[in-house]
Amino acid sequence: MRTRQASDTAPTAPATHKTNSSAPSQATMTSSSPTVKNRQTGGQKRARYGQARNLPAYQRDIDIKKIKTTKQGGAADIQQAPKPENRWDQFTKAVTTDGKLTMKFADVNAISDLVAWLKTCPICLRAVVIDFSAMGDTCAIALADALKVNTTVAMLDLSETSIGEEGAKALADTLKINTTLTALNLGWNEIGAEGVAALAEALQVNTTLTELNLCFTEIGPVGAAALADAMKINTTLTALNLFGSEVGAEGAAALADALKINRTLTALDLAANEIGAEGAAALADLLKVNRTLTTLRFMERGIGVEGLLAVADALKVNNTLTELALTGGYVGEEGLLALADALRVNTSLIKLSVNAKGLWKITPIRQEISALLERNKRLKLMPYAEASLDLLVRHSPALKSMGVPTDVLPLLAESLSSQVLGTFEQEWRDAFRASPPPIITTTTTNTTTTTTTTTTTDATIPTILTTSPAVTATGPASAPPVSTQPTATAADIKALLDDPNPVVAFSRWIDGHANPTAALNWVDPVNGYTLLHYAVVSQEGAVIRSLLARGIDTTRADQNNQTAAQLAQQRAESSSSSAIAAISALFKQV
């Protein structure tokens, strides 16, 4: 038997295999080569690449080294890259809880980013304040362009930001379109007469801006005249600040004439404008007619005794101004005595700033003026307390069951301190800021029906909560004559009386009418009843007292030829109720 040779047992190499006699054996290669850990196969690389393609845009450029694999060669484990900082974080982190963003010394790049952010209408933003920035007209134009599309910013403060005429014109164009901005501050910018003329033109069509600050803007008499023309048309602006804007006597006179027509502006600042005695006399004539202005400041050294005496004389007629500042000039003894004499008649002024120098130390005059101002303050706050106490009685079952008479409320309010009375006023104002229901008035003609909806603001807080004497028809500020009666029915009046707070309900209805005097003196065409008649029937003493305070005509009689006072007396004689007796007594106090 032939023995098998070693060459016979060795496997035959393929023809294509080339033998490398110098290459080491497999065992030698394994032992001498460096160990490669976590080496990925082609399939793993393809899986990794496929997952990387599905990453968000900000992660697609991340280095592949961010991708790890398991030692066992399993599926790829992708480590998420940290999310980059949001572009708007510099603004969102700076916005306060009440939505205010303040930027100081902002450069062009910061303003550019702000413009881009404003165009996104961030819901967290309500107010923008840019202080001490040399942004100039170019940035102002960009901001104005952004505010044309922004629907969240309500207040914009660009004071002392080097804005000129062109920037003011761009912002004016924005005001013609924007419907959310309510306050604009352009103070300490040299916008000039032409810049303010553009703003005045915008005010004629804008219906949302309520506050405009143009202090130290060098508008001059020409700019003041342009604003005066706008104020004859504008029906929304409530505060105008022209402090130190070189208005002069001519500009003050133009504004005074305009405000004899305007019925919405409540605060005007003309301090440091060199209006002189002539401008003071024009403003005094305004105070004799205007019934909406509550704050007036024209601190001026040059008004003289003549101008001051004119203002004091106007205070004897005016019953709406609550704050008057005259601290710029020396009042003198004659002027101080004139102001004291005016306050003996005036019942609305509660804050007076004067410069009497050593005369202010005269105890009798100082004490009398201080006492008169305190008296007016209490008179202003008292109705708030009475209305609040009336609500307390109305909604308290215990007090209501006791039959607390209406005339007790003034006595309770009288015993309260001024500080406590002030809290009642603030509560009322806070309540009105809680978006009261709109007032809807409908006017019907032969062919069309027009419906108007208005809402209550601070400026329209019930005027029955003031103690201003009624304006007589013969006075210089007599109300428009009763020409058209509101289209309310007896059912509408009864609905107002059934309101949880009928005092406020009647005030909203009267002030919401185009002619408040006509609404106040409404007459039921069916039975001739007035608002007083219906209040007597419903035994609403608080409503009667508020209507009497507004100056309602008490001489109107119904179809039975009875006035409301006579109706109340008749019901008191036929009833033993203390409430109706108290109501009848209200008419005797008139």
What structural keywords apply?
alpha/beta; 590 residues; 24 helices; 10-stranded parallel β-sheet; single chain; disordered N terminus
Q: How does the SSE layout of this entry go?
A:
Layout: H1 6-9, H2 26-32, H3 42-53, E1 67-68, E2 77-78, H4 89-92, E3 100-104, H5 108-118, E4 127-131, H6 136-147, E5 155-157, H7 165-175, E6 183-185, H8 192-203, E7 211-213, H9 220-231, E8 239-241, H10 248-259, E9 267-269, H11 276-289, E10 295-297, H12 304-315, E11 323-330, H13 332-343, E12 351-355, H14 363-394, H15 397-401, H16 408-414, H17 418-432, E13 439-444, E14 449-454, H18 490-497, H19 502-511, H20 516-520, H21 531-537, H22 541-549, H23 564-573, H24 578-588
Parallel strand pairs: 3-4, 4-5, 5-6, 6-7, 7-8, 8-9, 9-10, 10-11, 11-12
Antiparallel strand pairs: 1-2, 13-14
Describe the structure.
The protein is 43% helix and 10% strand. It has 590 residues and is an alpha/beta fold. The chain has a ten-stranded parallel sheet, with no helix packed on it. Helix 6 (136-147) links the parallel strand 4 and strand 5. Helix 5 packs parallel to helix 6 (136-147). The radius of gyration is 39 Å and the shape is globular.
